[in-house]
Amino acid sequence: MAALAGSYSMPLIGVSIFIAALTYTTYKLLSSYVHKWFQMKPIPGLEGTYPFIGNALQFETNAGDFFKQIVGYTTEYSNAPLLKFWLGTLPFLVLFHAETVEHWAKVASAEKDADSHLPLLHPDGLLGGDERAERDPGGEAKQDGREGMSDIISRRQRTPWFWFGFVYNYFGEGREHDKILKILHSFTYNGTKKRRAFLDMLLKATYEDGNKMTHQDIQEEVDTFMFEGHDTTAAAMNWVLHLLGSHPEAQSKVQQELQEVFGTSDRPVNTEDLKKLRYLDCVIKEALRLFPSVPFFGRNLGEDCHINGFKVPKGANAVVVTYALHRDPRYFPDPEEFRPERFLPENSTGRPPYAYVPFSAGLRNCIGQRFAMMEEKVVLSTILRNFNVEACQTREELRPLGELILRPEKGIWIKLEKRLHKD
């Protein structure tokens, strides 16, 4: 009889421990949520915020409609010092004024990427890579995979009930996510084998504590390099070509500058040439102002802080909407107009540094921004030395999608005409 009682006691103890742990975890999550709710109550926010759901039901599911909605909120609340909304139990601050972005940048050293807080924004989700159609039999599948992953991640970001892995796997697009992930990881894995020097460097790298990078760490670094090195710059150059094709006068100025630097020579571009292409530099910067490659970026606040007079608790997420920030009429009059001259030195005097942040801001800004600008100058100068560009769409027809990268819904169509005379 005693043995029988003992056989029942062990499962009961296990169940009791599980219930106790679940109760404690739930209590900690609820207390943290309630604490943030009341602490952030003074901050202006969207109407129709419900407990535990937040504003999730208000957001559009279509990527284009969602992006238009967020931009609309920044216009509606343009006079508010801050804007707050809730996705599930997570609070988000929307920053789109130079002053608030500067306040945020001052505490950037204590922050971590928002993707470390949300599993759906993990580097495995971003994947990097412009796994764009390479010149190999599987290239088209890789491009479809990259675009499909971008869509999946964007949808999951807007539906907090799918942030839980088991719910997403059984009721959402978890299986499709994993399928595409394998395609993209195989591409970056094969890429590292072809570039042994880069892989060898990562294999030898160690952290501050002396530990070496794990296989997953290396995979994430390769993914990040692929993503930042291709997709963002490719998107930026597409927007530049569309804008120049829509503004023949600006295109003529660029080609005149190219004529002054290269003459009738067909020699390749060198670093000295890049320094002389000042107007092209202004064109790229203006294109990044109107259509920043990354339309918004987020950080998870690592400590309590004050932003523009409001106390913001640790664990809140700050989202800088660069697309709206770059349209502040105080610093960019007629913000929807394409005017490369805005970035000439004499016209940039007095402009706050945080009014224009296409490569993020603070200590975690893009380490490859100088290389990106050089890469874009090389490619664009080569195209414009040989072709005239004509846009086949109006800006209104493009309908930007604010996903991981800012892209037009149906792509950009241009007409290239061979330049017979470069004089």
TrEMBL record:
* Keyword terms, alphabetized: Heme, Iron, Membrane, Metal-binding, Monooxygenase, Oxidoreductase, Transmembrane, Transmembrane helix
- Matches recorded under Gene3D superfamilies: Cytochrome P450 (1.10.630.10)
Under Enzyme Commission nomenclature, its number is: 1.14.14.14
What's one Pfam family the UniProt record gives for this protein? p450
- Please give the residue ranges the record annotates as the region Disordered: 118-150
List, as start-end ranges, the regions of compositional bias called Basic and acidic residues: 129-149
What's the cofactor? heme
Q: Which domain of life is it from?
A: Eukaryota
Quote the record's binding site residues for heme: C366
Q: Which reaction does it catalyse?
A: testosterone + 3 reduced [NADPH--hemoprotein reductase] + 3 O2 = 17beta-estradiol + formate + 3 oxidized [NADPH--hemoprotein reductase] + 4 H2O + 4 H(+); androst-4-ene-3,17-dione + 3 reduced [NADPH--hemoprotein reductase] + 3 O2 = estrone + formate + 3 oxidized [NADPH--hemoprotein reductase] + 4 H2O + 4 H(+)
Report the protein's function. Catalyzes the formation of aromatic C18 estrogens from C19 androgens.
Q: What is this protein called?
A: aromatase
From which organism does this entry originate? Answer: Collichthys lucidus
